[in-house]
Model the fold of this input.
Amino acid sequence: MFEFARLASERAASRKQPEHRTLNPSQAKNCLAVRPHGPMKGLARAAILLPVVAMAFTLGAGGCKQKAQPSPDVWAVVNGQEIKRDDVEKYYRTQVSPDGPEPSQEEALSLKLKVLDELISNEILLERAKKLNLEASDGEVEDKFTERKSPYTEDEFQRQLKDRGVSVDDWKRDLRRELSITKLLNREVVAKITITDQDVTDAYNSNKAQFNVVEPLYRISEIVVTPRKESQIRNLKNDDATNEVEAQRKIKMLEDKLNSGADFAQLAMDYSEDMNSSAMGGDLGYIPESSLNQADPTLKKVVLGMRAGQVSPPMATQSKDGPRIVILKLISRESPGQRNISDPQVQQTIRDALRNHKEQLLRAAYLTIARDEARVTNYLAQQVIEAAGKLPDAAKTNFPAKSSGH
Done:
């Protein structure tokens, strides 16, 4: 990624998602975000971030009644439904890279408490979905499974499942949970949101200065390939060129796909080795022309000479992390000047930001009420307190052996 674009990319990455650009069978984080129009930075940043409520965790065996003294592998009980250690450990492993630095036991335990809290929320919401007859059907689950699996070859798919220590049945249970909770929140939260024309006008008048573009803006996307092994890869294919020969071969493959009409954003999500931008389809957002002065002169010249929609040839660059090869796409450019409320893009940007802000508020309130009405016992949290400063056995995790290949 361009050095001048690193902050823009990191801001983009922080808005989502994704979790997840290696295969995460649980799709553990579900965060809606709208990319702000270039000049609407302040309002958008304040309005678009939604609380992360995990939507796709698999819980333990159903129908068990709460016991006065549960077995040690029961870490929580929600309305009589047990959540077991294996459930937490499984999704904990999807959030920790086995190739990265190993978390301390304190860090591991803190993350497991967070995962367990998300599992508790999911179980509460799933029960509500079932009561309202909003549970996803088998057909809906199969359709979503096919969609999520489609970016992978069968070998890639099986390798990812093995590396994550999950099965196809695990993944389908997660998808059923995710789809059911999404249905619930769409009915109970999203359907209640209305944004009037007057809301849009008032927001514009309160933030008018933010729609004044003071210099040309360039919205750029990138695909990055590095001739070295990365500590973390978050593209959908989990694809990493580890030397110069592999990097050149990968670049040639990407050029061939682009020349054949492949979608740039999809290729970035599938193959780009920049962990901050790949999840966003390579989109770096709007970059001021003045920031181009901090880039390699060759890169600046290329960007200034591109027209909207054009893709650059591969270019060798040097970043603080080492050499890399980038392919750029200029999505659009914005000329200086005041953007008026009559501009449809301005209206849509404001409408999306206001909608997301209201959705954030309603989601938080709905989940709070749902949890208040549920019967929850968190035995893992009790273990931590009872350990009186010592680390319980729950702090330890064994990762599955990595499969060969990349």
User: Anything to note?
Assistant: Residues 1-67 have pLDDT under 50 and may be disordered. The longest strand covers residues 322-334. The radius of gyration is 23 Å. The longest helix spans residues 344-372.
